[in-house]
Amino acid sequence: MKVIDTEIADVKIIEPAVFGDDRGFFMETWNQKAFAENDLPTHFVQDNHSRSGQGILRGLHFQTEHTQGKLVRVTSGVVYDVAVDLRKSSPTFGRWVGVELSETNKRMLWVPEQFAHGFYVVSESADFNYKCTDFYAPEYEQSIAWDDPELGVEWPLVDGAPPILSGKDATGLPFAQAPFFS
Q1: Are 129 and 44 in contact (CB under 8 A)?
Q2: Which of 29, 32, 84, 143 is the most buried (most CB within 10 A)?
């Protein structure tokens, strides 16, 4: 696998080795030894799978306790995936990284703990899979407004149409009012 740095040092793009021919392909999506050799997480406690239609935006989510690192990938479709640094002591505090993940490029993104995370579905639909380093704890979940002007995330909105949001995401906190990490 190839590990690619992003503008935020702790957020990594992971390109697995893909072996394919006219019958299909094979790839490892996680290998404890390879991840340890690349200083990536090797302990996950939960796997999640979601399916969303075009124009749906999920995020920007994080947990204030039981923070979750996430190894994310797309098995069907195309999404634009975003990680936002919420660590006040970080030189990249308040900055974001956006990466296209698709069934074609087979890329994965490592989103560390203490980052907000979200994705927007570009294709007709998308299956989104992720491994988490801690369990989901809804009582600690927060959502930052996807369109917060201070963050300025450049979402690739299909035809410029507003995204489809859950009630929770439609009332996300302004970045300046979000709880941060030290």
Answers
A1: no
A2: 84
Q: Which of 66, 117, 130, 136 is catalytic?
A: 130
Examine the residue annotation and report whether 130 is marked as an active-site residue of this protein: yes
- Buried b / exposed e over 36-54, threshold 16 CB at 10 Å, is eeeebbeebeeeeeeebeb
Q: What does the pLDDT average to over 74-86?
A: 98
6-19: average pLDDT: 96
Percent of the chain with pLDDT over 70: 100
Report the pLDDT value the prediction gives residue 59, as an integer from 0 to 100: 95
Q: Residue 48 has what pLDDT?
A: 97
Residue 61 annotated in active site: yes
